Amino acid sequence: MADEAAKAEKEAEEKLRAKFGSLPNKKDALARRMAGDKPDRKYFDSADYSMDQQLASMSSEPKATTPPGGNSSSAADVEENAERPPPIRQPSVS
Question: How far is residue 5's CA from residue 43's CA, in Å, rounded to a whole number?
Fold first, then answer.
């Protein structure tokens, strides 16, 4: 009897596989979803699209290099030479 039940279960499983195919491997499903930028990617709204475009352009821009001469300023030099806002002047009443 147990043999008949197992055989019936295998037949039902084969019918389902023939109709729907096999289940995807969890690793494969995740890898396909995470694989690169696809042209058919869906965005929630225009802000998501803009953010994705901005991130793509930022990654393609060259990185900043040291200026010719090789001197890169340290944090102390930046603080000493920082531009300060002009003093606030009170309007003169004539």
Answer: 48
Contacts of 73 (CB under 8 A, 6+ apart): 81
What global pTM score does this model have? 0.27
pLDDT in tens, 56-88: 888 776 665 555 555 555 555 555 556 777 778
Whole-number Å distance between alpha carbons of 82 and 8: 81
Beta strands per DSSP E along 1-94: none
What's the CA gap between 24 and 32, in Å, rounded?
Answer: 11
In single-letter form, the type of residue at position 73 comes to S
